[in-house]
Amino acid sequence: MRLCVIAFYYMLFLVSSHGVHGQEEEEEEEEEEEENDYNPDVIMMEEKPTTKGLLCPKSCSCTQEGVVDCAGVDLKEFPIDLPETTNHLSLQNNQIEEIPPEDLIRFYRLETLNLQNNRLTSRGLSDDLFEQLENLSYLYLANNKLTVAPRFLPSSLISADFAANFITKIYGMTFGHKPGLRSVYLHNNKLTDAGLPDNMFNQSDKVEILIMSSNFLKYVPRNLPPALYKLHLKNNKLENIPEGAFDHLSDLRELYLQNNLLTNEGMDNETFWKLNRLEYLDLSSNNLTHVPSGLPRNIVILHLEKNAIRTISNNVFTQIKNLEYLLLHNNKLRARGIHPAAFLGLKKLHTVHMYNNLLEKVPAGLPRRVKTLMLLYNQITAISKDDFANTYLLEDLNLSYNKIMSTSVHRDAFRKLRLLKSLELSGNKLKSVPHGLPKNLEILRLKGNEIFVIPQDTLAGMTKLKELYLNGNRLKINSVYTGAWSELSSLQLLDLSGNLLSYVPPDLPESLEYIYLQSNKITMVTDSAFESTPNIKGIFLRFNSLTPDSVKESAFQGLKKLQVLDIESHLALPTVTKKKTEESEKEEEEEEEER
Question: What is the C-alpha separation between 47 and 39, in angstroms, rounded?
Fold first, then answer.
């Protein structure tokens, strides 16, 4: 009887213990379920598969939908423990050198394979490695060490990126017989003409984007896909364009041929003529001596800069009725080499760059509707009365760094430019501010001249001017007519640095927010120096002849918006200004940290 009682209590203890431990295990299982519910798609290798056949390598992430991400996890070999249902596989930014065929062939559902930025070599990829992947649409092999392109690719391919390798050869079936192929990227390789098959895109007629920049091609590839709308051949060794090379590309919109060795003799009058839909043509950085004839009529943007163009005839542009941007800078153009009717009828042309040429004067026959005209860095010495008589829509005119003198600027040179907002005449030989400046100017740059006087009323009526740059001249206080600054009722920025001013100019406009006076001869700052500028935010007085006694503390009192006071460090700044400056600097540092 005693033994039975002992046995009963022992069984009761076991049952109780099991109940406690069982409850703890159930709670732990519930916590694990809650964690899995938080991110149900992520299944790591440490966990058991919840779906039949679903595995996931350590450090990778896998989803139930077949997306596997193993990017940048320092893999040295192709992972073999992947779900067979994988359809999107990311392996970029690893150190994989080869892919055994048996490791890849089982992924029959694979649609996207990203292997870019690894260490793959052509020896590490068998010729038919990708061919059996019948659903593969997107293949990325950029930034590896391939020396030849894969010999066979699946017919299902839509996009192939083999950029930034060492590829010297393409095979006939690499891109051929791919009815759905849309884009091919081969830039930054070592391709030559001999490495391209004659019919590289045989029965792949729907390719729309072909990027072959930065190779060693001397000729435009033959038999290009007829559906192309973007073709990049820049940074090659192209010397000529074979007859009819582009004739069948009726859908081409963008053609990049810059930085080659093209000459006018290397193309004929019909080279581009049949590209009826071409909108963007870049022929910059070649060896052209004149503008090519037969340019397509629908071009919108035309790059011809950085050539050796000396002449523009009267009929090379007139048929391009949709031309909006014409870039001719860094050539060898002289005004007499530009026919007066060269731009006739170009009603949409609004931006013309002709800077850094050899223009000795403003060319005749400028586009009537031009809005932005860049003529800086030429040899222009004068601006006559009618130079801009027909460009009445001009908004931005840059004549900086020429050889223009004050006496050679006609008083009525700018009379028709009623819409002009920005005028730049920096770096010329002006000794005074020109008369007849447009009244609607918002920005006027005259820095780096020899200006020593602002004649009476030269700034009169310029009530819309917001920024005035006169730095690097020879201005003194008495060389500016009385009331000149106060007339500029909208002026926000005035740069008078690098002149010969002996004190802060009087009668500054109330609208002024920033004044640059550094590197002058200023010896004192009076208590009324900034009395007329309650909105001032920045005052720059460094590199003058100021002493602690010559700066009045009251000069900066009441300037509630002052944020920056740049002055010699040895000067005693007013306490209130120091505080505001320090607070402003702190705010700027905090904003920078946030950015």
Answer: 13
Is residue 215 packed enough to be buried (19+ CB in 10 Å), middle (13-18) or exposed (0-12)?
A: buried
Structure tokens at 289: 């001596």
- Which residues neighbour 380 within 8 Å (Cβ) at sequence distance 6 or greater? 359, 360, 361, 362, 399, 402, 403, 404
| Residue 588 pLDDT exceeds 70 | no
Domain extents in the chain = 452-595
441: Cβ contacts below 8 Å, ≥ 6 apart: 420, 421, 422, 423, 462, 464, 465
Angle at 190 (CA atoms; ends 189, 192), nearest 5 degrees: 125
The CATH architecture of the domain made up of 452-595 is Alpha-Beta Horseshoe (3.80)
Half-sphere exposure of 449 (CA within 13 A, CB side): 28
CA angle 162, 200, 92 (to 5 degrees): 10
Q: What pLDDT sits at residue 219?
A: 94
Between strands 422-424 and 325-327, the pairing is: unpaired
**213-232: average pLDDT:** 96
Decide which of 464 and 588 is more confident.
Answer: 464
Q: Angle at CA 33, nearest 5°, toward 32 and 34? A: 90
Q: Using an 8 Å Cβ cutoff, are 445 and 400 in contact?
A: yes
